[in-house]
Specification:
Mean pLDDT: 85
Shape: globular
Structural class: mainly alpha
Low-confidence stretches: none
Number of strands: 0
Amino acid sequence: MLTFADGYMTAWFMWQLQGDDEAARAFTGDNAEILNNELYQDQQTSIR
């Protein structure tokens, strides 16, 4: 368990639990925010 939540965790839960399309854009699509964040440059995703 994380000791604190970051913006991506909050966005993930908003997307998954509330169906928030704006929050989903952090993870989905060819221009997903997380794919362009230099702090997450070594991450891979199969969500598109």
